[in-house]
Specification:
There is one protein chain. The chain has helices at residues 6-17, 28-31, 50-53, 56-61, 63-78, 84-95, 109-117, 120-125, 184-196, 215-221, 248-255, and strands spanning 21-25, 99-103, 129-130, 133-140, 146-148, 171-175, 199-203, 225-229, 242-244. The protein is α/β, with parallel strands linked by helices. The strands form two sheets. The protein has a six-stranded parallel beta sheet, sandwiched between helices. A three-stranded antiparallel beta sheet has the order 5-4-6, covered by helices on one side. Helix 9 packs parallel to helix 10 (215-221). The chain is globular, with a radius of gyration of 18 Å. The structure holds ligand BV8 and zinc ion (ZN).
Length: 258
């Protein structure tokens, strides 16, 4: 897509003049880093049904299987680096402190892109809101224990699964599963950012999972503009001022260029 494309110039100007921008990302922003998406042709949900793996019931029924899947995802993601879209978004967020990244991803690549740019303390002011939690944190199924956790998990048997040092119950991935509420403070901050945004840039999400997928509609209802970057049409394409049918690494750097 040439950067002289009129739609690119229009949206680039819009983003430059925006007083506040919300960026909502999904698995598609990380696809070109090698992180599998969920619903695409080679997506994670191809071989497993979400209900089998991404629900509290699934974990109760077979914690070993669920940890095996999350352990495999951790390994896959650990080999991946932020791509040009993550990097352009990180630069934009640092340059314009009124930009908030809200991600559905649990892969930590936005944070990595920020840390490549800034020291860890500086990056902490621009951190993305992680609506669905993180692959790299665990929490206890029974008490409030929660901690960063990157070690490989031995899911060969239930006995080898990680257990809470406080109460000895099982530790689970600190992600939000279907039917679980999102962290209240995180969701509130995301909604406030969506309400105040002049532009909501939506990158690489199928926009089927709520409440994340409703954030761009909050911006629109408050008078803001929705812009989408996705290889395919989604339920948000019709409400977008422009829906770029192209890849994240091709379009996002063009839209956020200085
Ligand atoms: C909740 C765990 C309150 C973390 C995930 C009926 C209607 C509406 C809602 C519901 C409903 N029935 C139930 C619900 C609620 C439910 C929901 O939304 N279900 C949907 C599926 C119908 N939501 C919930 O349960 C949420 N909680 O509502 O709490 C509550 C409380 C109690 C009881 C009821 C409700 C919790 C939602 C969180 C679920 N957790 N995963 C993990 O393991 O990762 S969901 C999973 O989907 C991931 O988290 C992921 O983040 C999320 C969204 O997927 P995407 O990121 O969009 O990825 P996907 O593969 O789908 O799409 C990729 C896109 O990228 C594609 O469009 C593709 O074209 C594009 N793409 C690919 N490559 C590129 C690209 N684009 C650009 N460039 C590329 N290179
Ligand atoms: Zn505990």
């Amino acid at each position: 897509m040439p950067d002289t494309d009129p739609a690119v110039s229009e949206i680039r100007d819009l983003l430059r003049s925006a007083k506040s921008t919300l960026v909502l990302t999904g698995a598609g922003v990380s696809a070109e880093s090698g992180v599998p998406t969920f619903r695409g042709p080679d997506g994670l949900w191809k071989n497993h049904r979400p209900e089998q793996l991404a629900t509290a019931d699934a974990f109760r029924a077979d914690p070993r299987l669920v940890w095996e899947w999350y352990g495999w995802r951790r390994q896959r993601v650990a080999a991946c680096r932020p791509n040009a879209a993550h990097e352009a978004l990180a630069r934009f967020t640092v340059r314009d402190s009124s930009t908030q990244i809200v991600t559905q991803n649990v892969d930590g690549l936005h944070e990595l892109a920020l840390q490549d740019l800034l020291s860890v303390e500086e990056a902490s002011t621009a951190l993305p809101l992680e609506l669905h939690g993180s692959l790299y944190r665990v929490r206890c199924v029974a008490c409030r224990f929660r901690v960063g956790h990157r070690d490989p998990v031995d899911a060969t048997s239930e006995a080898s699964l990680p257990r809470c040092p406080e109460c000895d119950n099982l530790l689970r991935p600190d992600v939000v599963w279907f039917g679980e509420s999102l962290d209240e403070k995180t969701l509130e901050a995301a909604i406030t950012a969506a309400e105040g945004a002049d532009v909501c840039l939506v990158v690489g999400t199928s926009a089927v999972v709520h409440p994340a997928a409703s954030l761009p509609l909050v911006t629109r209802q408050a008078g803001g503009v929705v812009v989408e970057v996705n290889l395919e049409p989604t339920p948000l394409s019709d409400v977008a001022r422009v829906s770029f049918r192209a890849s994240a690494t091709e379009v996002v750097p063009l839209l956020l260029a200085l």
